[in-house]
Amino acid sequence: MSYLDTKDIGVFDLRASGADEFIGHGTAILVGGLILGVMGRGRLVYQVNQSHHEITRNGIFFALPGQLFSVTEYSNDLEATVVYVTSDYLLKLGSRNEMLLMHANESMNTLLWDSLNELDTMLLQDIVLSDDVCGDIRSILSVLQRHAYPQVAESNLVLSVPLIQTLLLLTIESLNQGSMKARTLSRQEQLSKDFFFLLLQNYKVEHDVSFYAGQLFVTPKYLSTVVRKITGSPVQDWVARLLLFSAKYLLKSSRLSVQQISDQLHFSTPSSFIRFFHRLTGMTPREYRIK
């Protein structure tokens, strides 16, 4: 299954030998939903916005809607299972405040969403779960994989609610037992975080480092130096990764022409868009669309 093809809930069995857009080395995913995965074996190094993480067996990884997720390294024996819930499907489960809790009381609602929202402002230690909790999470993912998607009946929607709720609450319980650590961001970390906030809002229109530097009241050289130091990649690479992800998504999920996609992503000409795409993928947009 491909991340780009997910319509509601997708459960992925990730293997190093079968890596796709979801785990492709250097590929940036603008998360349009909720990602949560558990490691079976091997090693995974990934990044959520400006925060780096490395996990092995029984490690858990996740990203929230609106975050930038990318895999920077993984071992040849990688095995993991991931659930991805799209934003559209989340919205079917209720309002923003009751997204995953159709019948929960207010205190449980607050516990769940306050805990998830805190992840945006916290630096996480690498999270390692017990064998028992990992077994429970894998059992839930197995049920979701077999019964909860695609949403062809109302019963699937009703079934998915308590399963996703339980999955997240198991994770939050583990975090609250000492896996979560907060500290004050350094000035350079804060600048990098502020850059990602601007990037996610403006990357389709603004491709130049100078725009982001100007918004943050620093020089382009200083911003690039800081972002490279904090994330391992310069500003221009992050802009390119997001543009490439959006281009791939539009090519696979829409009937827009190459010229229309080029216009949406604010390339100066369709030719410049084609050159950009070919440089990063080794194929033209049309070749990618039909492969």
Entry summary:
With 291 residues, the chain is of the alpha+beta class. It has helices at 87-92, 106-118, 131-148, 154-179, 187-202, 209-216, 220-231, 235-253, 258-264, 270-281, 285-290; strands at residues 9-15, 28-30, 33-41, 44-48, 51-55, 60-63, 68-74, 79-86, 123-124, 180-181.
In terms of topology, how is this protein built?
Elements (H helix, E strand, L loop, with lengths): L8 E7 L12 E3 L2 E9 L2 E5 L2 E5 L4 E4 L4 E7 L4 E8 H6 L13 H13 L4 E2 L6 H18 L5 H26 E2 L5 H16 L6 H8 L3 H12 L3 H19 L4 H7 L5 H12 L3 H6 L1
Antiparallel strand pairs: 1-8, 2-7, 3-6, 3-8, 4-5, 4-7, 9-10
Helix pairs in contact: 3-4, 5-6, 5-7, 6-7, 9-10
CATH topology of the largest domain: Jelly Rolls
Count, helices: 11
According to DSSP, the number of beta strands is 10
Helical content (DSSP H or I, runs of 4+): 40-55%
Order of helices and strands: EEEEEEEEHHEHHEHHHHHHH
How does the major sheet shape up? 4 strands, antiparallel
Spatial ordering of strands, largest sheet = 1-8-3-6
Measured distance between first and last alpha carbons: 15 Å
Q: What amount of the residues lies in strands?
A: 15-25%
- Morphology call: globular
User: How many structural domains in the coordinates?
Assistant: 2
Query: What does the radius of gyration come to?
Result: 19 Å
> In the CATH hierarchy, what is the superfamily of the largest domain?
Jelly Rolls
